[in-house]
């Protein structure tokens, strides 16, 4: 199936660059471009793309506000797109806000063409955590600036000991394959554990599992 994409960025050259990169990929189609968050929300609800590539900083309604708006579908629809945030390392303070607003991952603006295409495919497939080292590094940097949380055993109580192990490794940026090797279990078993973790904790995807692990104190930055 073709993955449809909407690109939202206030810089025309950036929009054109991402559009050209994605248009050259098999199975990906750019169906719209927006110059700000408000336009992105309108176009997304009209065109219903699979993925919205959203810049964080835009005039008027910024990317975080637009992402949050898209998580609340109009009454006549249940459509909620996946959102891939465009970011740079100098705006780490926006990471938690973007994740809480509903973003499923991050992409650096200077990413290589193959990385851009892979990120869109990963997000569209619902895998959510792309470039684990990048996403984890961003989250850790924000977590370092906040008071260390006390481990919230109440929120973690629904998880089995094995599920807590898996969640901790997910939060450290491990892939399913790496987790399977470390715990000496099958990769399919890891996938089952991850699915149960998301279901029990009411989390949308792996990115939000990472945030949950840091917010509850299960994982500490640099540990």
From TrEMBL:
DNA-binding in keyword set: yes
Transmembrane segments: none
InterPro entries noted in UniProt: CheY-like_superfamily, NreC/VraR/RcsB-like_REC, Sig_transdc_resp-reg_C-effctor, Sig_transdc_resp-reg_receiver, Tscrpt_reg_LuxR_C, WalR-like
Record's keyword terms, sorted: DNA-binding, Phosphoprotein, Transcription, Transcription regulation
Keyword presence, rRNA-binding: no
Gene3D superfamilies from the UniProt entry: 3.40.50.2300
A GO BP entry: phosphorelay signal transduction system
Residue ranges of every copy of the Response regulatory domain listed in the record: 4-124
HTH luxR-type domain span: 152-217
Entry-annotated residues carrying 4-aspartylphosphate: 55
SUPFAM superfamilies listed in its UniProt record: C-terminal effector domain of the bipartite response regulators (SSF46894), CheY-like (SSF52172)
GO terms for MF: DNA binding
Protein origin, superkingdom: Bacteria
A UniProt-annotated Pfam family: GerE
Protein's recorded name: Response regulator
Organism of origin: Agromyces agglutinans
Lineage: Bacteria, Bacillati, Actinomycetota, Actinomycetes, Micrococcales
């Amino acid at each position: 199936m073709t993955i449809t994409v909407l690109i939202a960025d206030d810089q025309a050259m950036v929009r054109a660059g991402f559009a050209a990169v994605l248009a050259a990929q098999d199975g990906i189609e750019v169906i719209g471009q927006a110059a700000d968050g408000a336009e992105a929300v309108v176009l997304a609800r009209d065109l219903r793309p699979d993925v919205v590539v959203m810049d964080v900083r835009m005039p008027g309604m910024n990317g975080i506000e637009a992402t949050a708006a898209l998580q609340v579908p109009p009454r006549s629809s249940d459509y909620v797109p996946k959102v891939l945030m465009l970011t740079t390392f100098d705006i780490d303070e926006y990471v938690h806000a973007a994740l809480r607003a509903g973003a499923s991952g991050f992409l650096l603006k200077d990413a290589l063409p193959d990385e851009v295409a892979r990120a869109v495919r990963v997000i569209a497939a619902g895998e959510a955590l792309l470039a684990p080292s990048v996403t984890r590094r961003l989250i850790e940097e924000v977590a370092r600036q906040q008071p260390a949380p006390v481990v919230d055993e109440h929120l973690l109580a629904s998880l089995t000991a094995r599920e807590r192990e898996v969640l901790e490794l997910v939060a450290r940026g491990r892939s399913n394959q790496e987790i399977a090797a470390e715990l000496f279990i099958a990769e399919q078993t890891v996938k089952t554990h991850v699915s149960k973790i998301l279901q029990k904790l009411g989390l949308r995807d792996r990115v939000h599992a990472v945030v949950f692990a840091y917010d509850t104190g299960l994982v500490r930055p640099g540990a």
